[in-house]
Design a protein that fits this description.
The longest helix is centred in the middle third of the chain and has 18 residues. The chain is an all-alpha fold. It contains 8 helices and no strands. The chain has a domain of 89 residues.
């Protein structure tokens, strides 16, 4: 959806506007579409890779660089004077959201903290234990998984 929004507004993002203004437009308009509800997502390494590649795709498109130009991502980041920020933005959103929830006294807070007495406990389940939101939020300093 965010790629479609960028393609729809291509003339705006690839025009002769100032670079700083184009960067603000991408972060404000496109990233908000792409990261809608990201504070509740649980990430795998594959998801992180997809988000980073989406971020780079946005910078490539705003600079009008074709993939046939064989340019490294670091060079594109240097051109737009940016660093990879999309995962950092998600971590910030998660921290803000969890702080908002934990300040309230509601059912969602008790669910996140694991204080709800559950129903049937299934033991002997095959496979790795599923990651829940609370585990990813606690771990969140350097990685999202």
């Amino acid at each position: 959806m965010a790629k479609a929004a960028l393609n729809k507004k291509r003339t705006l993002f690839t025009s002769t506007l100032n670079l700083e203004l184009r960067k603000k437009l991408v972060k404000c308009h496109i990233w908000n579409i792409a990261l809608h509800g990201a504070e509740t997502w649980t990430f795998r390494a594959v998801d992180q890779k997809h988000l980073e590649s989406f971020e780079m795709w946005c910078w490539w498109r705003t600079e009008k660089i074709s993939w046939t130009d064989h340019m490294r991502n670091e060079e594109v980041l240097r051109r737009v004077k940016e660093q990879r920020n999309i995962l950092h933005e998600i971590r910030k959103r998660k921290a803000n959201w969890i702080g908002h929830i934990l300040r309230r006294n509601c059912l969602l807070q008790r669910v996140i903290e694991g204080k709800i007495q559950g129903g049937i406990e299934v033991t002997g389940r095959q496979g790795r234990r599923h990651r829940n939101y609370w585990m990813t939020a606690k771990k969140g300093e350097d990685t999202l998984i």
